Structures
1.
Amino acid sequence: MPSVKVEFSGGLELLFSNQRKHDISLPERVPADGHESGRPVDIAYLILWLRDNLLQERAELFVENDSVRPGILVLVNDTDWELEGEGECVLKERDEIVFISTLHGG
Amino acid sequence: MSCGNPTVETDALMPRKKKYDKTNECVRCKTSLGNIVIRHAVYCKECFFPLVTFKFRRALEPFVNAKPDGPRRTALKPKGNLLVGFSGGLGSTVLLDLVYRCYVSMDKSTMPAEGGKQHPRHERVWKKVSVCYVEVCDIFPGMKDRTPEVAQLVAQHDGLEFIPLRIQDAFDSSWWARAHSSPGRIDLGVDLTNEELFLNSVPSSTSSTPLESLRTFLASLPTATAMSSTINSLIRLLLLHTALDTGSSHLVLGSSLTSLAVSLISGVSQGRGFNVKEEMQEEWFPDRAPEPSSQREKRTGKGERSVRVIRPLRDVGRKECAAWAWWSGLRVLGRETWPWPGLKQDIGTLTKNFIFGLEKDYPSTVSTIVRTCTKVAPKGEASGICVLCARPIQAGIQEWKSRISIRSRSPGDAIDEKTPVGPSLASHLCYACHTTLTSTSSRPAPPFDATVTKSSLVALPVWVPPQFSEKEELFRTQKMGQEKMRNVVQDFLLDE
């Protein structure tokens, strides 16, 4: 079970009990229907896991079309998730994932 | 390889395209692994900071000296001080940090390497730097006042003066008196129910507070878009007048590339196409009388007061702003969303959602919007300055508007000769402001507060009445009744 650190910034923490940092444990593999085991846990799964388990209010401000809402920057170990394959980036033990909202404008 | 049928063969789907070009190495130093993708280009963290600082300086410094783009091999010498417009949002937080590092604390890491330590570039540019915040919470009941938080944040920066304003100052004659050392008046009102926008004096018996005047003005606006664009316009004018009050020759705003693209598209869709240039950058001459732009160019004097509005983050996208704030450990207070259902109908909000969605999948589009707008030149000449928003009015716009509009006159429009009709405000407004005040919608704006009622005569912002008293001549338009008209032309009538 990989344990990862998740941090919210730029106002996103307000959706998660106003708590910026969270240590969470995820299953090794994405639970799949039937007998086959699912794919390794990735960020796409983490986003949905956060929505279902930690998010307190207004899911539409965090998730859109099973990914993060446009305007949320995701860093995986201080690197833009676009360099890591976005939602397909497989999570490892002690990874640090930061979600930063940029929706506050000028 | 066959094209396949993607609906039944999932393997036939095209592989997702990478968000960056070539490798994941930094395109600048070509040695480190990248940390961020900026419009398909990869940068490492070490190269990211000089890149943003360079973009910031490039957008600001050519316009610091009075003669823009002039020779400035020696030093930056502005005519006055600097005012930073601060909203608490991401862009203005990054802007404040950059201004502080580059021009107040003189952070060496933000200085260009060439030129040596004694280069004039390393001297302080502005003698005084002020930060102005306009609080809008009084409009909406239940909204939090963030002034103390903003004051605390600004106080963390030594050498910056903090100027807190409230949005109702736009209707406060005492604020005007403080800012301009001349008595302010809010005794001029307008009838928003008539397209001609006839002016009339507000009876002194109706002694409203500035907040009441503001709320009545906003409640009388016809659409949700009108309300939000009016609030933004009031904030801009408050900042401009504060810049004048603080002796600032420059006003910098934290609009990022993304928010600039939003305001450009949203502005064009609200009829501000003629002011596209001003939306990017503008210079405001408060002492100039409204006159055609061709004559104005010839009259530019050396001692004339002016405020140059610059958006130094116009080449920096909001993703870069977010990364700068995160990696610099900046605290972003954030702008509270207005607790008002009308925001969903607002053109600005709809444009923002559209552009933000577009930027996620096509990051270069936002930059393309702004670059395209820099090439757009409005057709026609300016015939003056709008008394409400202080931006140029396109010549002949009211004639054009009346020519293309289809109106039906109801019996209620019958001329009442006994009621005195004041001069019309319409000819002193730009197309967008006139549309904002008069264009109705099938879906009227939901009320922001049930206790505020609409009024047939609403007071105008405090900067409007002085512009009318300064005019030597004021044209008065009044419709004549048939009897009166007959009397005037009686001598020329032929007997039947």
2.
Amino acid sequence: MSGKIIILDEFTSNQIAAGEVVERPASVLKELIENSIDAGADRIEIEIKNGGIGYIKVSDNGKGIEQEDIPMAFERHGTSKIRQISDLSNITTMGFRGEALPSIASVSNVTLTTRTSENEYAVKAVFEALQLKSITKAARAPGTTVEVRNLFFNTPARYKFLKGDIQETRYCTDIVLRLALANTHAAFIMICNNEEVIRTNGDSELINSIYGVYGRDIANDIIKVNAQSEGFSVSGYIGKPFASRGNRQHQSLFVNNRYVKYPELNISIERAYETRIMKGKFPFYVLKLDIPAQNLDVNVHPAKTEVKISNISDIFGKLNFIIKEALDKEQEVFVPSSIKPTYIKSEEKKEEKNTIIDFNDQLSKFSEEVHQIQQNSNIFNEQKTEYKEQTKDNAVNTGKFDKENIIKNEYDIKPYKIAGQIFNTYIIIDKNEYIYIVDQHAAHEKMVYELLKKDYENRTVISQQIMVPIEVVITSTEMQFISQNSEFIRRVGFDYSEFGKNSILIREIPSTINECDIKDAFKAMLDDMQNERKDKVHTALYSLACKAAVKANKKLDEKQMQYIFENLMKLDNPFTCPHGRPTMIKMTKYDFDKFFKRIV
Amino acid sequence: MNFICTRKKLQEAVNSVSKAISNNPIMPVLGNIYIKVKDSQIIFRGYDLEIGIEHVEDAEVKEEGEVLVNSRLFSDIVRSLGEEEVEIFTEENKLVIISGNAIFNIRWLDTAAFPKLPDVEKDNKVTIKTEYLKNMIRNTIFSVSTNEQRLILTGALFESEENCFKMITLDSFRMSIRKEYILGNEELFKFVIPGKTLNELLKLITNDDEEIRIYYESTQVMFEFGNCKFISKLLQGDYFNYKAIIPKEFITKIEVNVNEFREIIERNMLVSDDGRKAPLILEINENILTANTQGEAGNVTETLYIKKEGKDMRIGFNAKYLLDAIKSINEEKVRISFMGETNACILTPQNSDEFLYLILPVRIAS
């Protein structure tokens, strides 16, 4: 039986620049798991202790290593995965450099137990700092187990730079979960300090892996993406806008099944979420890109988390479009996940009665109070007040909403009834079995923004002339800024002329915003544009819309509410304002029935 | 306090004064109606610090006195009563209201906390028929500015000019001027009344066939009519020099039938009322006026035969501004004068100069 492993010729090995492979326990895990995958394993068990510094074990059910190949595997550039440099352009395996095992073994104590299916017994090899100490027979099912102990015991400099156990554990988990997502055909089980933290079932269904890795909550809030385009295809899942997170931890991008960091692609995806999520929030996604191997260079860095794509600018635009389209298809009303009903204590009520002496005062506020008692305190107050009678059954108190009640793409909004306005800020829409609570400012703002944007893009702005030119006093820097952007400002719908050194006269305004304080709006637009480098158009239109929109704390009559609601619902994406806050939330009759314990 | 009065009179009084009582008063005491019984009269007052209303009714007075009662409750009670006479008297801390077999006991408060209505000197006076004043207000109130940034424009200018009583309102996009030739030569006045005051005044005037006396000072004004006195603050500051913006020369003049034109505008608004405010585009070609709106939901085109002087032209407007103006003209024909596609146009009735509406166009993206 001939060995599978050869030593790369010198030319080839020099082509592959040497680099740092083993940086921390997580990189050890990555190399080992990738080896398992390359060995055709469909079940990989990972165990770490002390953040992987003390102990790492990776066992698989792959094809194993022949006994005579073992010493070779621990030689630098010992690999079975490629034969010559031309193979690099058609890499299908995770590893190819032949650096992993020797690098790991040189800074730790490695025990390798392996058996191929042809052999009747396993072989156990013990290495200490790359020195083979012993080879013995052992018992094992076909596959390979690599145990790594005392990482960096002989390189104190490296050791010093490791973070604490907890942090290292996080790095390890992170790398495992990404590999698990990349390799849905393999079942992953990860045990940290004797506790199972990740389990995927390896049935090749990405959604099941996401469920296994991130848990049920996120698995309910994702949208499937599957698209083919010239030069690449993409599949996977993206998070719904309101399921976004405070950092980018929950973003995984795989190119040809390899977890990579590719800032351009990341920007392309995040841009698609613009106006749907708030600033400082990042979307969830697990996306797999398939790119023909000839357009891809994976040999950028030894850790292989960086790749180069030759037709990146093409993919950038197309990917952005694909994500946008997926988001458009799956629009939803934001459903608050954890509103807890607070019940009014009877003592509180009594107290109120006693303190109110002024008869008139009470009367004049009567209707408001009724409102507040009915609407406000019960449902919207997130502060928990103690129940007067604590029910024994705790399950009743959670008041959590069922995600199943989310409705999708409800463009056909009629029939509905405007139930009223509360706090002079929110419009309540009664629609049969559920209610919408619409933020009047966010909703109107969204509507105006979309109108402005449409007119801007189609160059169909209508400018209303104004009787008395509005003088806006500005600084000379602002004046410069205005001259630089004069074409843009005119395209939005303003017409102005310079009026002395430090002021301009506005003579025409976009007719969409003719009911707001123009001076205020114009200045806000200037300020925001100057502060924003990336997307001036969006920023400018947004600040105009914000100023033009009806404010919170303003009483609206029914016609105005109807106008806002109906025009909002005509939009393509009515459910988030231009900065991603929800414009409305939804609650069902069922929720209310639960609050009032009609349903327990 | 003790008096007997008909329900009708009570109802009228309560209706009047409650217009000066806000549902959400700044001070709780302002949520009350002030009732004073003296000689053979009952005086009702409501005051929200901006406007104040005093209403006087006759009654059979048994005992004089004054109380404050909660406006909403008292109004509701009065409204609910039958047509019988109503007897109202105080009994310790209760106000007793008896009508038919119904007996209400409600609380009353001492009047000391209720602010006094301002006194308005009767030195300066203008008199006008209620009907005229109402029409003048109706024909101009829509173009009062809603933008609080220039507070003075949220009111209407009342001005005398020779023997003519003028009312002017303007926001940033249009102006309304209304005149009535009713004055002698001796009255000279110029003051700005808040738009809100005029809206309330409109509701308050129920009899078209009486005189209304307007007394004005530098900071306040009082309208006296029927059983009512209506007092309001005036807006302070210089009003906009409106005469300067009225163009004198025109390149196109047309005459159209008011009703036909109004209907055309209304039909055009059916497709423009979608938030974007698609403009109504008027195209004047020989003696044909073409009105067209390209809305989000659809479009509409309509033609009308007109009388024309001057050049052909094409101009766009916010349809609502045109409609507000045209609705106020109750003659058969309106004359519309244009100064060019990006200049103001003027609407006047064919046969009088009592109305003048100036509207600025929108620039139509080409």
3.
Amino acid sequence: MNDSSSIKSADSSIIDISNLCLTFETQTEPVHALSDINMKVNSGDFVSLIGPSGCGKTTLLRVIADLEKPTSGTISVEGKSPNQARLDRSYGYVFQTPALLPWRNIEANIHLPLEMSGYSKDEQKSLSNQYLSLVGLSGFEKKYPWQLSGGMQQRVSIARALSFDPDMLLMDEPFGALDEITRDRLNEELLRLWEQTQKTVVFVTHSIPEAVFLSNKIIVMSARPGKIIDVIETNFPKDRTFDIRESPEFLEVSQLVREGLKEGHSDGS
Amino acid sequence: MNFLAIIRSRPLSGLLCLIFSIASFISLQLNEINDYALNPFIVIIIAIVSVIFFIIRQQGLFLLSICFVALFSGAWSVLNLIHSFDKGVVMGLDAWFLVSALWFLTWNNLVQLSALKTKNKLIELSLTIIIPVLFGAWIFFLWEVITIGMSVHQVLLPSPSLIWQVFDGAGATLFADFYQTFVRSAIPGFIMGSGAGFLVAIAADKIPFLRRGLIPIGNFFSCIPIIGMAPIMIMWFGFDWQSKAAVVAIMTFFPMMVNTLSGLNETDRIDRDLLHTYASSYWRELFSLRLPNAMPFILNALKINTTLAMIGAIVSEFFGTPIVGMGFRISAEVGRMNIDMVWATIAIAALTGSMFYGVFALLERKLTFWHPSMRKS
Amino acid sequence: MEASRVLNSLISGTVGPVMILVTIIIMIWYAGAVYLNSSFLIDRYEKNNIEWTFSQLASDSWSMERPVLPSPHQIAKELKKTIWDKKITSPRSLVFHSRVTLSSAMVGFVMGAFLGIVLSIGIVYVSALDRTLMPWIIASQTIPILAIAPMIVVVLGSMGVIGLIPKAIISTYLCFFPVVVGMVKGLRSPNIILVDLMRSYSGSKAQVFWKLRLPASLPYLFASLKVAIALSVVGAIVAELPAGAQGGLGARLLSGSYYGQTSLIWAALITASVISATLVTIVGRMERFVNNRMGLQI
């Protein structure tokens, strides 16, 4: 375990983006959603993309997931094209809303990607049990999504993204629609999951405390055109709890992020 | 003044019931020579019950059940009275007064039952059944009383009891009609039309060119009187059930196609993206996401189609048919002025139609339990 | 390059595909006319010992006197003959018959819509009516109501009520169900916050009705009216089927079916479809106008 993780971190980047641009053609004028993006994500990183709404952070995540095609520039995911990475099911994607199919119960929802990857029925069953207990939802297998609270639904969605053991977890403001108390609890849980599973996580958010608390690398973006204006690395212990939010380092990093955002804002306008 | 205020705050139907039952009692006393008379005892009971109802504003279940008993005995005595009539006898004023009194008692009962608030699910459920059934029973009772009591000519409107007798006498004919129209015309047409509509919708969904062309054509066909195709279909497929099944197939095709297509287009962007991240194939996405999502639309089309199938099968028989079938029976017996037979056929058509619909309504509840419109309660 | 542009414009958008599909349907129609009419023609050729070629068969089957399936141009000719060439007052003119059907459909539609609106207001405001009537109204939608059309016409006829009224009654009957169901839904559609807002202004029942419930119900009303107006035409046509009906497209369909005049049937059918589609379009336009006024995007 220890060995493999050290090899992983020694390994070069898992996501490599250079000079990437994306322009949407609209009827009035082209919208430059992403302009000249250069970034690297190393294996085992927890990277947050933060910025004001409309800065293209979600679009960038969608480019990584092959849900959007870049206009120019290069991008490789695990050394492959995003399309190949998608076909190899290299990542699990967690959307803003849980995106659970209402006619499938919780267990069957987690089985969905497993069915597509050709797991046997028994494997599906044991994997859904394993990941449901990981997110603390054992006993809810037979419930339907609409019988669960918003926070529970999002946890199911995370379990679903982890269930086929991808190397990466791409998360698009997964806790944006939840109340702050639930969000805090899920943040702690996510951190614990990251530590346990050793996944690479790319996380889109617009909350500064969330980004600082969760990540070891924060990418600050600005809007119109969407571009990266700052990359901030943090060095909190992996088993951190919410207590660090009171620590001076935490406040310092938060301040850095805030200044970055402000700078981007004044640049943009 | 005070007295007026008390009256105002009481249910008016109780008072009206009292007035009419007293009127009934008085007219009963005046016509001693009448051979056909009500039991005065019943009239007095109704009057007493109405007084109770007038005085007590909040009526609990106990009082309401007393009211039921009074209602049934009143209705029973009226029915007994009219069934003892010889032909051509008209019901007397006393009985009409009693019927009016009974109506106000029923109305009072319906209002009270509707206002009843209960947390018990079983009582709530039985209320949603009892209230409309009570009203329906009243319509039948009134129908019977008016047709016999006013000795309405049976060509105009036969009484329910007369229609009921038809089932005894002509059961075999009615069954043969049912078999011809429903089993041989409506069901095959329904299956062909809905099935074809579904398959074409799937094809059109796969091929955007077809979809863009078919949606306007489907919308056009859904607002034209397709039933007019019946004479043409008869010319093509002959007089027997084949031509009727063809009409039904055409009628049911378009609702199915249009509904399935809009159902397939109903999926959320985010759900499609999810399946895309799993690198899912077109068919996988169709079966795992888009078809289940279209299920409410498809079942809605099936429900619409049950009614259309019955209408198509019956009405196309008006254009010509072998001497069997519900539509044939209706048009033939109307011509011979056997209106009771017509009503019996209509009753069977209504019963078949609602059962056919009911099957798919149940199926809908079973298959789309997850849809927000089904989830409530 | 140019060719692919043309092809592209043909298959994108709606007009191109519709035109292409309609052309295909017409081509199938001509082929079907040959197929369906051929057996009769071949019989005749063989009886008279005439040598025949396929092209002769095709041209003969497209110009038969009483074809099983008339070809589109024969129907067009019949339409022209019965719409333009005949006097409007002549019982052989389709305009005359359309007027008969249209007037009973319209009377029925107006009565049905009115009845439906009144009843739905009653249902929304009187809970006893809601619980007694609504289940029956919903159940009655599952019943093949059109089946009783001949009976209503004949029974009313025996009472001396003839002409437009019995037919209009059937249309009324068909129209009022969708209107009640849609209108009840519409009157109940304002959400609880808006109702509470009105209550906070201590609005009277009448004010809540005129200022909130009625405007909110209009989109629903027009959606049901669109269904109802198509039904009113169907009702009027079916009501004309019982023997003895003097005019109307339904009577025309029936007489065409008796005398084997297929082009007459098709002409009547197409006229009925055009009338129906036009009426639905008119109501649809009104619906769009109302929805725009209400700030809804449909």
4.
Amino acid sequence: MGLLSIIRKIKKKEKEMRILMVGLDNSGKTTIVLKINGEDTSVISPTLGFNIKTIVYQKYTLNIWDVGGQKTIRSYWRNYFEQTDGLVWVVDSSDLRRLDDCKMELDNLLKEERLAGSSLLILANKQDIQGALTPDEIGKVLNLESMDKSRHWKIVGCSAYTGEGLLEGFDWLVQDIASRIYMLD
Amino acid sequence: MEDDDPSFATETLDPALQKKHHDMLERLSARHQARKSDSPDTSSSSSTLESTSSFLAKFSDARRSIESRIAESRFVSSSSASSSTDPSKHKSDLADISVAINDLEKLLAENSYFLPSYEVRSSLKMVSDLKQSLESLSAELIPKKKFSFKSKSTNKKPEPKLPEIQKPDVVSPPNFLVPVRDSPGLRNKHGETLVKSFKGSSIGEFTLSDLDSCQVQLTGTVNALFLHRLKNCNVYTGPVIGSILIDDVEDCVLVLASHQIRIHCARKSDFYLRVRSRPIIEDSNGVRFAPYCLDYKGIEEDLKTAGLDEETNNWANVDDFRWLRAVQSPNWSVLPGEERVSSVSISSNADS
């Protein structure tokens, strides 16, 4: 029995997925996590460090690691890369000025070997705000089409404020991870 | 395998093997000779000298020869009438010199791993000086018209191999494939009073950027507010429903209310805040905090819309991302009561 099949078996028993949420500060990572968990999103402080949420989603248990995006603490993101099944990159679609930063940080992240096998969900957040870029526009700015062909990825527009688009994004992510790890049982 | 061992070969009687052995010895001695004759003056391009002094000697020889060639070309061109000189001759001369400089640079690169850093630096400086003088030489020799194009496209492009056909390949590639539009906002103003009401507008996000010595009054609610590069400004805003992102402000007074407030790179500024969550600062210093103090007609309603109708006292719960310790950060403080401005009243209906 190979190591991979052992890991598969263990994972199968637990049906756990490890999801890493990253993105620039002010993109809405914590708000998204609380919103899908049905919690109050009206009082959220900028994340100093990280939050972990365990959410039962369909028949899976998601361990969501929501890591702060302030510049000072971005260098600590790599401490959370290990064993990540799904990567969620959150974009503030209304912050046009920092799209360069956003692209640069994402490009750096995708170079990371430890994240090479993880599915990538890009959430173009804040679609409720008048003047925000559409998911298509964000996809072009981030040049997603040029991504490594082996990467499973999808971009979804959403609003953590209204909740719109969040389920669509996470449904895809969970299905994609499940089909890779649990071989569509 | 046995060919590697000469003693083994002599013991065998097989003539074919002996012949082979003999050939091999000849090859070896030939190679040895070649190596010996090679070693004192190594070929210029691919050699590592492993000794600082021999490198420096070789380097300065090559440098002197290039310098004399540049001087020679310059002399030739100045002594002969400019109309009679042959431009193609100049071009080939310049190209030769350029190749020589490149070789010199290559030599330096190949040997840089063992050179002391001072030598590397000074040698690099010499190479770039040579390039400079070659460039100025080519500017003198090659007709002015063509050069002007070059100076426009690149200010200092190394390797001017054929100076007259400088390719404009250094045009920086466009950052974005889609044109990124500007969000609504007030930008690039100096010494003005800027008034804007969001009442009844569909504006979702608003940007204040590159303002100097301005007074800004924003009334009504908006979803997101971005402040970027403000200097010596007073900014009074109605409640923001989502978040305020501040980057690079100096000598400002900002009166703001929002769900979240993030402050980056602020210096010597006072913030009068009402926030539902903890305000944060990063890379800032000399910033002081006090409670929100704005008043305009209809502000109560706007505060209610944004869920900010009650004082939360979060204005003093500042997290400094550059100071992750239990003791008070030196980068911010509470603005002493006697230094605070009293309530600021602005007009709500004026619109620019």
